[in-house]
Design a protein that fits this description.
The structure is a homodimer of 114-residue chains.
Chain A: H1 2-11, H2 14-23, E1 28-29, H3 30-37, H4 41-53, E2 57-62, E3 65-70, H5 77-90, H6 94-105, H7 108-111
Antiparallel strand pairs in A: 1-3, 2-3
Chain A binds a DNA duplex (30 and 30 nucleotides) through residues 9, 13, 15, 29-31, 39-49, 61, 63-66, 112-114.
DNA sequence: TGTTAATTTCGCTATTAGACGAAATGACAA
DNA sequence: TTGTCATTTCGTCTAATAGCGAAATTAACA
């Protein structure tokens, strides 16, 4: 029950749902997600830790970046069903479509002054 | 998106999940649900209005009582999938099993001094 | 019509959650 | 090793939410 409630709480925030949908397109680092959501890095990091806590996403070190990706190996039935339904449900959402466009053009190299 | 977030918010409270599971067994009035949850009637009523708002449940007048039941006619894919998954997921939860026993023995006639 | 009983709404309090900026951490590069 | 940059953690503020009791509402019935 506790786990289930954590899953639903994780899903009950707009920015966290947006992050999950973005990650269906490709792996992203914190600063890329921040650029798309338009909120501070610390807040993004908090959201990511909540999503990671319920095993919706995985993190993976890549130099000084941390890449986040969907956890596609979960055995949790709720997690899996929801990740099947979400894209279907939000296909036509204007905000999500706009996020998808940004995901395609977001460039870590421009964001971070390398 | 707004609707989806409302659905997940509705599901992110323990007592509301308990109510949904109880209603898989039979229709219940507010005072019966109150007796099982052990919280005040006004709080139960609030939870029910939240569940009704996202169309998880229906209300139906029956004399001076209001019977609440699951809405099995929803076309919302998230709602339907979740109601399929919930019982499966919480089958073995001790609290839910205890609620189920109480649902079987709860008696409106004893609760309300008729 | 007036009373009683079930339910809902209202006002309040305590806790939780999201947001921010600043400070701390960790990893690469000079 | 020292500096830089991405990320995380911490402290604080504000908004939202679950809980309660009391008042309002609604429906049956005397």
């Amino acid at each position: 029950m506790k786990k289930l409630l954590k899953i639903f709480k994780a899903l009950s925030d707009k920015n966290r749902v947006r992050i999950l949908l973005m990650l269906t397109k490709k792996k992203l680092c914190v600063c890329e997600i921040q650029d798309i959501l338009g909120i501070t890095v610390s807040t993004v990091s908090k959201h990511l830790s909540i999503l990671r806590d319920v095993e919706f996403i995985n993190d993976e070190k890549d130099g000084k970046w941390v890449n986040y990706s969907l956890n596609t190996a979960s055995k949790d039935i709720v997690l899996n069903q929801i990740m099947l339904i979400l894209p279907f449900y939000l296909n036509d959402d204007e905000l999500i479509k706009s996020d998808f466009e940004k995901v395609n053009t977001v460039c870590r190299k421009n964001l971070c002054n390398i």
